[in-house]
Specification:
Helix content: 40-55%
Distance between the termini: 44 Å
Largest sheet: 5 strands, antiparallel
Number of helices: 27
Number of strands: 18
Strand order of the largest sheet: 11-12-18-14-15
Strand content: 5-15%
Radius of gyration: 29 Å
Structural class: alpha+beta
Length: 732
Amino acid sequence: MNSTKPAFRKALPWLPIAVGPILLFGIDLIRGRALFWGAPLLQFTPWHTAAKEIAFLGHFPLWNPWLGMGAPLLANYQSALLYPPNWILLATDVSWGQTLLVLLHLIWAGFGMALLARSVRLGAFAQAIAGLAYGMSGYLVARSGFLSINAAAAWLPWILFAAEGLSQKPKPRTVALLGLVLGLQWLSGHAQIAWYTLILAAAWVAYRTRFYSGSAGKAVVSLVAAGVLAFAIAAVQLIPTLEYVSVSNRAGDLDPEFALTYSFWPWRLFGLVAPDLYGNPRTADFWGYGNFWEDAIYIGVLPFLLAVGALFSKRSGRLRWFLLGTAAVAFLLSLGNNTPIFTFLFENVPTFSLFQAPTRWNLWLIASLSLLAGLGAEHWKVAGGRKLYWIRLGTAGSVAVLVVAALIGLLETDIQPTFTRAIAVAGLWLAASGILTLLRTDPARKGWTAAALGVVVLDLFLAGRGLNPTLPAQFNSAPTALSEEVSGDHRLYMSQDVEREIKFDIAFRFDDFQPELDWRIVRESGLPNTLLLDRLPSVNNFDPLLPARYVAWMVQLERTTPALRDRLLRYMDVGWQAVDVPTHYDPVSAPVRAWIVPRAEWVTSPTEAIRKTTAPEFDPSEEVLLEGDPRPEVGGLGVVTALQDKGPNEVELAVEAPEGGWLVLADTWYPGWTAELDGRATESYPAYGVMRAVWVPAGQHTVNFSYRPTTVPIGLALSLVGLAAFAYLSRK
């Protein structure tokens, strides 16, 4: 009998924390199924598939020539190509491997919270409760398809664990650990989650240092040193990304209406005990504000009750007040435009205008409640006296709520069906929590501990199942009829109206994850960015981070008349244009990717260039609009006799220009692209506000465009220095 105790104790807290995510995703992985709904199919799978193919062809995945008119790939922060766990995708099917990574990150998140609970001196059972509450929370599980959020949020408890070590002993070794975990989170690809985590870590160090008789000044210096180390470790990603941001649509503040769209809907606060009160897209009946996943805050009924109990228990110590304050601040900020607080901060305080979706501040709420649940579990004792009376009464009341709600659900009433179902489920878990409290002994028996953890796992599993629909992994790699109908010689284009209708009205509806739909229609329609899976170039690019010039051009393109748009599409190398819904593609006549223009007009900004180019009377075949120091050259017409892609980071053109002329390439102008004329460097200019152009003298020439960003070697050098510094500090 006693021989089983060590094994049971060793299994806590790790086994129950791992079981939940395995239940959610393990069967799908065994069956060869993978996440697809929303961001996986439209962003992450195409990005990672392209990067993998580029790498296997022997090139470094710096540039994505297939989306937009070309865009950075490595510098695209959310693709997180240099995040070490993502390298597993090189050895697996991409979409299947992404699903595996989601499972592993949920487990990693739970393990980190368990270690954080251990670092504040909580026992194994409390560690398991805290880890389950965080790793299987609605915040993480409902957002699993947002792979960068899933990965970044998994590192938050590890960072707080390292911050706790720094608070206790601000030594080189603790600085190194915090720098490493911060650096890994910064490589994982979600700046918003990383920023919220950094603020919370700083607040944690400031608060906890007081209790270890440490020097506040030394703690601050150590925290800054850890941040510098983290930046150095992640510099190979951050330096190219910072350059991208500086010339992107995110270079300035976000539009307030866009940024505040996903503000926490206050009524979803009931989601702490009844997550499906307003329905669920899994059951095709979600009717709440916005979407389900952004306001998902469920951590399980029993962990929530334990968290509330911790607030009223003096044995929980002063940490509970820090966690309560953090949760309260997070909730107030998450309300966004529902209160004047966030609007004021958005307009007056730096960084608040950089990110959308204020509801994501609830990451602090979930982390705080999870650790509070651990505190409550640590001090969960046998009830007696008046407390026992109220627990018995509450348990009986919960059973009554369950029965009454279930009966009402069977009747035809005017009550919203989602209310009765959600309240009945809440009554079930409240009753189970009460029964567990009544059956508790001191010390707790193994059977009781297993039952309590089983209740939490089952509760969170049932709440999270179906929130991440899957399809066979082959869905993403199977060829489509569209790929057989059109060639990859020219780009495809889909207007915003067609894209919006397919995406939100037909396929990815917020109220129903599984409409009666053959999902092949998404692939066959060429919805951005799925064309990348067919190796077809698209002038569209569905990405939160885009070159500002490209965004301005596409906005203006959408505003033009259909006739003018058709003419401009030709000079964007668009060979096929999507029409109608469901889509078919009409050919665009005589598309060109490169051509010779006899003369140039010099403008002062991309805005002026785009405005003049999209004027009805302007002809791009006769004149090019350039930015830079004016040059007097005037030539004639010519032809591009050959155009060869020599990998994603290079384009080579053979040019015949009897009188000289301006060579225009219909690819995005971006820092880091250099040009050579017959092997010698030549100046490249922004053309029409978005493309590239070089002067070609009279005769036959070879022009080579190469993407050689200086940010990558600089970032790589800094990362190597950072890793060396980590190795040195970790041994001291």
